Amino acid sequence: MDSNAKSQLNGIVSDLRQIASRLDSVAASLSGIKGVGAELCAERLRESARKYRSAANTLNTLD
Length: 63
Description:
Layout: H1 3-31, H2 36-60
Helix pairs in contact: 1-2
């Protein structure tokens, strides 16, 4: 992989990790709200964050 492609890949991985972090932050905020709907939304956000991290980790293994 050339340096330009590696740089772009690193940028994508960084963006995916930032999105995951923001999703976790929103999920944590929702967890403080009472109600089944809020907790369900928080869990779905955490699940999405895990998937974004998984994608970032997979992309990080590419050479």
